[in-house]
């Protein structure tokens, strides 16, 4: 197989760091990891200069403004990165003939469904973050019809700040915590998503594939059930109380239902998707090994 040059933006985020961990397994490929300091994706001149310099075969855009609540007051910043930046990257990839993969989110949906969302379901974001990510999808496909967009949900990782690490910390510090029980979805272990993307890049259909795909771990749980599983796996005595979203108000509204239908990505790339519980166990073992 020919050696591939793969450029990863947002290299210091959860997904970017999981790609760093994974890269050692792909000896025939070369990776370029760029943080926000090294590549401002919302700066067209910078993007053009850096991508021309590296001339990658693939660009995976892990860069994003992900502070969902802060986005309500930092709308311009969120739009610059999540929408305009994604569009710029897509456009430059078209010019250079690089295949582009962009990461999006379940937050493009309003959460009113009772069935898992497929890629053709109507989008209707209920917060600013969701609006900026949807606009990003639109600009990516407008500027690069051959691009692949992967929507994902409830991302956590060994790296960065996320729900799993927050729960582990709170369960050590407190006797009881409250977690919302009326928001349903499936978590995504960022290491699994990185592996899935590398599987796609090396699949026979990779160059021909385009459009939107959904990816998360298998299963259906609430945030409360997620917290309960974390509690069991770390052997905590902390009491986890289920509460409705109404008792935990946040600046940005969250979708009540975020389950994604993954039939398309499984079928297109012959992809096996791990169960959420198994992946959570793997991540917690990694975190506990580091902590001990």
Please give the order of strands in the largest beta sheet: 2-1-3-4-5-10
Number of helices: 9
Regions with pLDDT < 50 over 5+ consecutive residues? none
Strand count, sense and closure of the main sheet? 6 strands, parallel
Describe the protein.
Helices cover 40% and strands 16% of the residues. The chain is built from nine helices and twelve strands. Helix 3 (75-96) links the parallel strand 3 (58-61) and strand 4. Helix 3 (75-96) packs parallel to helix 4.
Topology readout:
Blueprint lengths: L4 E5 L4 H10 L6 E5 L9 H11 L3 E4 L13 H22 L2 E7 L22 H16 L4 E5 L2 E2 L6 H11 L2 E5 L3 E2 L2 E2 H12 L9 E4 L6 E2 H12 L4 E5 L19 H7 L6 H16 L1
Helix pairs in contact: 1-6, 2-3, 3-4, 5-7, 7-9
Task: Provide a short characterization of the protein structure.
This protein is an alpha/beta fold.
Attribute tags:
single chain; 292 residues; alpha/beta; Rossmann fold; 6-stranded parallel beta sheet; two-stranded parallel ribbon; 12 strands; 40% helix; 16% strand
